[in-house]
């Protein structure tokens, strides 16, 4: 199932049922899990581990050196889980020593055309990255996040689980779980409520959604100082695991919240 024109290093570890298309290049340090499909003209290099049943489409670049001036060729890796779809011209880079050495992507994600995942990023499970969505280095993305087209995420930012980032947003702050963010006239991302529709689709009932809405109002409506809002969230978290998740995200932050 490897096309005669593909260049697969003998040291690469290729699982059962893997398909490699025409003119693709697979390097020596690459591991590809069972059932994964590699399209034509794909380059996979460096120490890159890819799980089972992924689909990588033509012209993708996977596991290249990071775009970081501090990188000096140190050992680093890219780890990709199972059942991901990686579309045309997507790029994903290995980690750096300063970021722990690993770029990590979970399971069941969709990366559409021209998406970019930079060095040392952490992406969860069941996320969707629309065309031209770009993550700078060290970005963390939780589970079930949707990042719309032409979004740019600043390095070291975090996006919590179930968040929705609207088209064209330039994101320079942390986004807690469950939020919906849209662009202002200057394209900077601003919270616009919670991702109610996405939560309903994932089985959140009315009680859970009401608690999350209350927590959102506590932090983002009325101009409450963040320190005071955190105290109120701590009280609300006693009755809601979702609010506790939001509070834990905020308390772990090193960058300012997107507000």
Radius of gyration from the alpha-carbon trace, in angstroms? 20 Å
- Largest sheet, described in full? 10 strands, mixed
Number of helices: 4
Q: Roughly what percent helix?
A: 10-25%
| Class of secondary structure makeup | alpha/beta
CATH class call of the largest domain: Mainly Beta
**Averaged pLDDT, please?**
96
Supply the number of structural domains. Answer: 2
What labels would you give this structure?
17% helix, nine-stranded parallel sheet, UDP N-Acetylglucosamine Acyltransferase, domain 1, ten-stranded mixed sheet, elongated, 259 residues
Question: Can you describe this structure in just a few lines?
Answer:
With about 260 residues, the chain is of the alpha/beta class. It has 2 domains: about 5-140, UDP N-Acetylglucosamine Acyltransferase, domain 1; about 200-250, Udp N-acetylglucosamine O-acyltransferase, Domain 2 (Up-down Bundle).
């Amino acid at each position: 199932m490897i096309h005669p024109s593909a260049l697969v290093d003998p040291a690469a570890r290729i699982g059962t049922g893997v398909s490699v298309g025409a003119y693709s290049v697979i390097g020596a340090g690459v591991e590809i899990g069972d059932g994964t499909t590699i399209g034509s003209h794909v380059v996979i290099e460096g120490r890159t581990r890819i799980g089972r049943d992924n689909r990588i489409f033509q012209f993708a670049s996977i596991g290249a050196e990071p775009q970081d001036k501090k990188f000096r060729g140190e050992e680093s890796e890219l780890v990709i889980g199972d059942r991901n779809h990686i579309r045309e011209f997507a790029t994903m880079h290995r980690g750096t020593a300063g970021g722990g050495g690993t770029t990590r992507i979970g399971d069941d994600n969709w990366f559409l055309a021209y998406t970019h995942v930079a060095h040392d990023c952490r992406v969860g499970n069941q996320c969707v990255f629309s065309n031209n969505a770009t993550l700078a280095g060290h970005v963390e993305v939780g589970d079930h996040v949707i990042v719309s087209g032409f979004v740019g995420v600043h390095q070291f930012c975090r996006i919590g689980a179930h968040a929705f980032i609207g088209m064209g947003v330039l994101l320079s702050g942390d986004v807690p779980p469950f939020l919906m963010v849209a662009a202002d006239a200057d394209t900077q991302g601003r919270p616009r409520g919670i991702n109610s529709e996405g939560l309903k689709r994932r089985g959140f009932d009315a009680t859970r959604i009401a608690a999350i809405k209350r927590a959102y109002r506590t932090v983002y409506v009325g101009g409450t100082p963040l320190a005071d809002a955190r105290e109120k969230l701590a009280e609300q978290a006693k009755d809601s695991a979702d609010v506790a998740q939001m509070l834990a995200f905020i308390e772990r932050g090193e960058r300012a919240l997107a507000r």
